[in-house]
TrEMBL record:
The modification 4-aspartylphosphate is found at residues 53, 174. Its cofactor is Mg(2+). One of its GO terms (biological process) is phosphorelay signal transduction system. Residues 281-411 form the GGDEF domain. Its EC number is 2.7.7.65. The keyword Nucleus does not apply. The keyword Ubl conjugation does not apply. Gene3D superfamilies: 3.30.70.270, 3.40.50.2300. This is diguanylate cyclase. It catalyses: 2 GTP = 3',3'-c-di-GMP + 2 diphosphate.
Length: 422
C-alpha cells in the first residue's frame, strides 16, 4: 500500500491535515512534528510521497526537505510564505511542487495535490521527442510525479508503442520529429485512443505561430512551449491528468447503481453488446432474482428492502468479484461467468443459491432468510436480447418449479441440463 509522510510542527495544522487526509487519501499515513521524528520514521518506512513543512523548530533551513529528497522520496513543500529566491532554491532542490499556507483552502489544495500525485503511481507516460536531452529532462520531472515513463525517438516509434500498450495514459509529444511529426502522431493516435482514454500535451520549441491551436485542434489536450519552467510543466501535466480522472469518475458514476454500487443495467448492456459484437463468447450469463421480495418490502418497508439489496450485492461481490456483476432490475441481478460450460456454471450458481439460502440477513438488527431463483444461459447467441431471453426463460421455469432453484437453458447443441435442486 502507498505510504505518505506528513511533517508539520503546528498542532492545529496537523489536525486539519489529518482530517482532510482521512477524507481524501486512502493510504498509510505517518505524521511527524520535527526533523528528528522524520529521520526515525524514514529509517523504518518506505514512503511513496512526503508533504513537509519547510521550516521546523529543529530545522529552520529546509533540512527536512533535503532529508526526504536525499532518500528519493518525492516531496511537496508546505510553506507559510515564499520569496522569489527561496522559491527558485526549492525548485532547484528538486521538490515536486510547493503550496503556500495562507488560507484554510491551501490545506485542502495540498491534500488534493498529494491525492492526484498518488493516482499517477502505476500510470504510464510516453515522451515522444527526438532530443535525448529533452527526453531526459522530462523523464526526471515525470518520475517525480510518480509516473512510469517510456520514451520514443520519433512519431512512428511512439505510435507503435501506443498501439501495443493501452495502459499509457499520458503522451507528451514534440512537434518536429523525424519520420512522423507531432501533428501526424496526434491525428493517428486519436483514431484509436479517445480523450477519455489518453491525454496528450504537445510541445515545441519552434515558436511557429498557431502551433498550439493546431495541436489542440488535432486532438491534444494542452500545449507547452519549450523551454518551459519545471513548475509550469508540473501544473500542466497535473491539470491534464485531472481531466482524465474526472472523466473516469463521471463515467464510473454513470455506470454504477446508486443503491448497491454494482454496475447498472446500462453498463451491463453496453459491455455485453461490445463483447458479443465479435461473435459468441465462452461465458455463461446468470440472472438471479430474489424470491417473494415484495413480502420483505411489505413487512419491513422499502428501506428494509433496500438494506437486503445491499447485503445481496456484498454477497455477490464476495463470490463473483472477478466477474461482471450488475443490478439489472429492482430485485434482479446478472452475473457473467467466463469460461465455464453450462453444466459447470449451473453447479457453481446452485452452490451459491444454497449458501445464499443459509445466509442470515439483517434489517435493523432483526434476522431473516431470503432465497433466490436463477436462470443460466450460454452466451452463444448473436445478440444480448437472445442470450437474455434464454436466461429469462430458465429463470421463469425456476420460479415455476417453486423458487429457490437454479435452472440452465438448453444449449444450441441440445445438451439439456435442466435440473431443479429444491
Ligand atoms: N426496497 C426496494 N424494493 C424494490 C426496489 N426495486 C423494486 N423493488 C420491489 O421489488 C418487488 C418485486 O416484486 P415482484 O415483482 O412481485 O416479485 P417478488 O415479490 O420478488 O416475487 P417473485 O419474483 O415471483 O418471487 C416489488 O415490491 C418492488 O417494489 C428497490 O430499489 N428497493
Amino acid at each position: 500500500m502507498q505510504r505518505v509522510l506528513i511533517v508539520e510542527d503546528s498542532k492545529v495544522v496537523q489536525q486539519i491535515l489529518r482530517h482532510l487526509a482521512a477524507q481524501h487519501l486512502n493510504v498509510e499515513l505517518d505524521f511527524a512534528w520535527s526533523l528528528k521524528e522524520s529521520k526515525a520514521l524514514l529509517k523504518s518506512n518506505r514512503y511513496t510521497l512526503a508533504l513537509v513543512d519547510l521550516t521546523l523548530p529543529d530545522a529552520m533551513d529546509a533540512e527536512v526537505v533535503q532529508l526526504t529528497l536525499s532518500q528519493n522520496v518525492p516531496t511537496v513543500v508546505l510553506t507559510s510564505k515564499i520569496d522569489e529566491y527561496s522559491r527558485q532554491q526549492m525548485l532547484e532542490m528538486g521538490v515536486v511542487d510547493y503550496v503556500i499556507k495562507d488560507n484554510r483552502d491551501s490545506y485542502l489544495y495540498a491534500i488534493k495535490l498529494v491525492s492526484r500525485l498518488l493516482r499517477n503511481q502505476g500510470c504510464k507516460a510516453l515522451i515522444a521527442d527526438d532530443s535525448m536531452i529533452s527526453r531526459a529532462v522530462m523523464r526526471q520531472m515525470l518520475e517525480k510525479q510518480l509516473f512510469t515513463v517510456f520514451e520514443a525517438q520519433d512519431g512512428e516509434q511512439a505510435l507503435t508503442m501506443l498501439k501495443s500498450d493501452h495502459e499509457i495514459k499520458l503522451l507528451l509529444t514534440d512537434y518536429a520529429m523525424p519520420t512522423m511529426d507531432g501533428f501526424e502522431l496526434v491525428k493517428a493516435v486519436r483514431n484509436f485512443r479517445g480523450r477519455d482514454d489518453l491525454v496528450i500535451v504537445g510541445l515545441s520549441g519552434a515558436g511557429t505561430h498557431g502551433l498550439s491551436a493546431k495541436f489542440i485542434k488535432y486532438g491534444a489536450n494542452d500545449f507547452l512551449m519549450k523551454p518551459f519552467m519545471n513548475e509550469e510543466f508540473h501544473c500542466r501535466v497535473m491539470q491534464t491528468m485531472e481531466q482524465l480522472n474526472l472523466i473516469a469518475e463521471i463515467k464510473d458514476y454513470a455506470h454504477r447503481d446508486y443503491l448497491t454500487g454494482l454496475y447498472n443495467r446500462r453498463y451491463f448492456c453496453q459491455h455485453m453488446d461490445k463483447s458479443l459484437k465479435n461473435g459468441p463468447i465462452s461465458s455463461c450469463l446468470a440472472l438471479l432474482d430474489l424470491d417473494l421480495f415484495k413480502e420483505i418490502n411489505d413487512k419491513y418497508g422499502h428501506l428494509g428492502g433496500d438494506s437486503v439489496l445491499t447485503q445481496v450485492a456484498e454477497l455477490l461481490n464476495q463470490s463473483f468479484g472477478d466477474c461482471l456483476v450488475s443490478r439489472v432490475g429492482g430485485e434482479e441481478f446478472a452475473v457473467l461467468l467466463p469460461g465455464e460450460s453450462i453444466d459447470e456454471a449451473r453447479a457453481i450458481f446452485d452452490n451459491f443459491r444454497s449458501r445464499f439460502a443459509d445466509n442470515i440477513f439483517y434489517i435493523e438488527g432483526e434476522a431473516l432468510n431470503c432465497t433466490l431463483s436463477i436462470g443460466i444461459a450460454k452466451c452463444e447467441y448473436a445478440t444480448l436480447s437472445e442470450v437474455m431471453r434464454h436466461a429469462d426463460q430458465a429463470l421463469y421455469r425456476a420460479k415455476a418449479q417453486g423458487r429457490n432453484c437454479a435452472m440452465a437453458a438448453c444449449t444450441k447443441s441440445h445438451q439439456v441440463t435442466e435440473k431443479c435442486t429444491t
